[in-house]
Amino acid sequence: MTSDTAVECGHGIRPNCDPCGSRLGRPGNRMGEIGMSSRVILDVTEYGENARTYVFEEPQLCLVGRAPSCHIQISAVGHMQVSRHHCLFEIDPPLVRIRDLHSKNGTYVNGERVEYVADLADPLDAPGTNLKDGDIVLVGNAIVRVTVEAPMPVGHAEEYSWSN
User: Fold this and answer.
1) pTM of the predicted model, to two decimals?
2) Angstrom distances, CA of residue 7 to CA of 3, 13, 129
């Protein structure tokens, strides 16, 4: 473990806890990680208007559709291809996955239709589609751009993945 030297007294300073590797004074950061938390950003554009930006730093389910109860509500005007409850983003930064909620016209990721299993009682039992930084999701004519910001461990190029 490396240590820095205090400017005033010259004593060594260790930036991380020896037993667990956590950065001192910054909960959740492990040794070798950049000092930032993971987050998922969804930029929603309808009809070329300025994007509405939704930032997620904590695990959350995000419902998308025309219904007023949706977290991301797509305007009904010109979006009759969008179901009341169209799709669901499952967000656990830096991970994000999308599930189609048996929408009539489908949900598309980078031009590919998201699979829907019609005989499931609970939409969360569907496999869903894992998303990554830069993916484009189409919900009717609305465009959702996915940005994933995550600290990457130094010296490791592994991608984050869902455990199941």
Assistant:
1) 0.70
2) 13, 10, 51
